[in-house]
Amino acid sequence: MAKPVPVKLPPGFNWVEGPEGAGDAAVSLLLHGESVLRIVSRRAGWLVVVDAVDPALPQADVAVHSVAAGMRWSARWANGRAKRLYAMVEGPKSAVIGAIVMLVTGAGI
Fold first, then answer.
1. Where in the chain are the domains?
2. Which are the contacts of 98, defined by CB distance < 8 A and separation ≥ 6?
3. Which backbone phi and psi does 14 adopt, to 5 degrees?
4. Local confidence pLDDT in tens for the 109 residues of the chain
5. Which of 14, 37, 59, 63 falls between 20 and 30 A from 84, CA-CA?
6. Can you list the alpha helix ranges (DSSP code H) found in 23-108?
7. Is residue 29 within 8 Å of 78, Cβ to Cβ?
8. What is the torsional sign of CA 88, 90, 92, 98?
9. 6: how many CB neighbours lie within 10 A of its CB?
10. Number of neighbours of residue 67 by Cβ within 10 angstroms
11. Is there a contact between 44 and 32 (Cβ–Cβ < 8 Å)?
């Protein structure tokens, strides 16, 4: 049987194995240290649980037959939503930094 080809993650994304990722997850997908999703064991299979909740593009949990299949599905999902995920994770930080810069420099006053 041929080994499945891995799907490349967008820049800034990385996999973390085990409990340091999040709770009962076998692996977690992080974006700049923030949890995007987890692959958790459920009964006789695996479940991809999305942590990055986007009201505009809701995503239900996805059942997969193995951790490797979950990682492939997750990488394709992250590639398709990379810009939106970057905005969700970095957006609030960028807005705060922008406000601080405006206060310090007096811009907009």
1. 13-105
2. none
3. -155, 155
4. 455 556 789 899 999 987 544 457 789 999 988 889 999 988 888 999 998 877 777 788 999 999 999 999 999 999 998 988 888 887 655 444 444 444 444 555 4
5. 63
6. 67-80, 82-105
7. yes
8. negative
9. 10
10. 17
11. no
The pLDDT, as a whole number, for residue 66 is 92
Tokens of 76: 């394709």
Counts of helices then strands in the chain (DSSP H, E): 2, 5
Query: Model pTM?
Result: 0.72
Count the neighbouring beta carbons within 10 Å of the beta carbon of residue 91.
Answer: 11
Question: Whole-angstrom Cα distance, residue 72 to residue 67?
Answer: 9
Residue 106 is encoded by which pair of tokens?
A: 């007096």
Residue 19 is predicted with a pLDDT of: 59
